[in-house]
């Protein structure tokens, strides 16, 4: 039954024959291109205990939960309730802290579930998007940590610049998966530019004084547009903080270089507040497509995060 749900959601599943706990290996895809990660699924059959509030609960060995929360790949636990014949699911990594589990003296944990945790086509698709955004967020965090380490230990400017370029490429690939950058064109999707324009217009109409004082700047416009668009695409998952911060800067830089008209139109509504005024590349970075430039390319300057 779990495999059937995943199949309808567009994923491929394979039963793990000789396993140490997990039962299914899942390969998700987007636009017929396999994602760069796998999902592991543990399937359990039991009779859930009904609660007074209409939900359900059951107990589980803490050691199993520790394994799932510490796993490199995302692990989803699916529970088949033999009484209701419904499938419920929970994501241990989102419910428990590995450190708290280690410090806890309890041998068993109580898992509480309700109808929002029913595993179906929609919730499966939403979880796939969650795993997709987490993958890019984790990849970006790896490069950010390596960059911090490189700077702290003086490993050289050349290495630092390489790590910056690699981190920016992760964001660019995330933009492509999200549809923010159109495949084959490397241009910002019209829907994204429209959303940026709408946010800028709304700020100007609803908060004119804040805009005039510079308390709302162009960076806030791009950031809010990125949040709104990401939420609509990812089945409500939104966007992790590091992707939001870095992605906002890269999106602004990208539009400033490849679509100057849109950049100027938005800037006329909301002031930049100094954002990207001193960071724009002097020339379009190298791109594999002739005649095209991309601020996610290898010659771009480091992206700063946070407000200035």
Structure description:
The protein has helices at 2-8, 62-70, 92-95, 98-103, 121-152, 157-178, 190-206, 208-213, 218-233, 241-258, 260-269; strands at 12-15, 24-27, 29-30, 33-34, 39-46, 49-50, 56-61, 75-81, 86-90, 108-113. The strands form 3 sheets. It has a 5-stranded mixed sheet with strand order 1-2-5-8-9. The chain has a 3-stranded antiparallel sheet with strand order 6-7-10. It has a two-stranded antiparallel ribbon with strand order 3-4. By secondary structure, it is an alpha+beta fold. The termini are far apart. Strand 8 (75-81) and strand 9 (86-90) form a beta hairpin. The longest helix is centred in the middle third of the chain and has 32 residues, at 121-152. Residues 279-308 have low confidence and may be disordered. The protein has 2 domains: 2-119, Trna Endonuclease, Chain: A, domain 1 (3-Layer(aba) Sandwich), CATH 3.40.1350; 125-269, no CATH class. It contains 11 helices and 10 strands.
What are its keywords?
308 residues; alpha+beta; Trna Endonuclease, Chain: A, domain 1; 48% helix
Distance between the termini: 52 Å
Low-confidence stretches: 279-308
Number of strands: 10
Number of helices: 11
Number of domains: 2
Radius of gyration: 23 Å
Give the integer mean of the pLDDT values: 89
């Amino acid at each position: 039954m779990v495999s059937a749900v995943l199949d309808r959601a567009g994923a491929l599943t394979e039963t793990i024959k000789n396993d140490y706990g997990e039962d299914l290996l899942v390969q998700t895809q987007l636009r017929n291109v396999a994602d760069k990660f796998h999902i592991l699924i543990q399937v359990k059959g039991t009779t859930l205990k009904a609660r007074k509030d209409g939900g359900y609960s059951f107990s589980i060995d803490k050691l199993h939960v520790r394994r799932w929360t510490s796993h490199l790949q995302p692990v989803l636990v699916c529970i088949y309730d033999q009484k209701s014949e419904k499938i419920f699911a929970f994501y241990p990594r989102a419910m428990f802290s590995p450190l708290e589990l280690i410090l806890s003296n309890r041998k068993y944990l109580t898992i509480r579930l309700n109808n929002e945790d029913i595993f179906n086509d929609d919730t499966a698709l939403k979880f796939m998007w969650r795993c997709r955004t987490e993958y890019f967020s984790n990849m970006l965090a790896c490069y950010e940590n390596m960059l911090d380490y490189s700077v702290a230990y003086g490993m050289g400017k050349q290495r630092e610049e390489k790590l910056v370029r690699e981190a920016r490429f992760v964001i660019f690939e995330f933009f492509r998966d999200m549809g923010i950058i159109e495949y084959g064109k490397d241009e910002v999707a019209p829907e994204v530019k429209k959303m940026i324009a709408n946010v800028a217009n709304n700020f100007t109409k609803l908060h004119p004084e804040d805009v005039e004082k510079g308390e709302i700047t162009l960076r806030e416009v791009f950031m809010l547009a990125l949040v709104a668009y990401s939420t609509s695409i990812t089945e409500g998952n939104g966007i992790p903080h590091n992707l939001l911060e870095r992605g906002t800067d890269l999106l602004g830089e990208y539009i400033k270089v490849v679509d100057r008209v849109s950049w100027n139109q938005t800037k006329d509504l909301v002031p930049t507040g100094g954002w990207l005024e001193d960071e724009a590349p002097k020339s379009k970075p190298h791109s594999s497509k002739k005649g095209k430039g991309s601020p996610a390319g290898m010659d771009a300057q480091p992206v700063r995060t946070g407000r200035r």
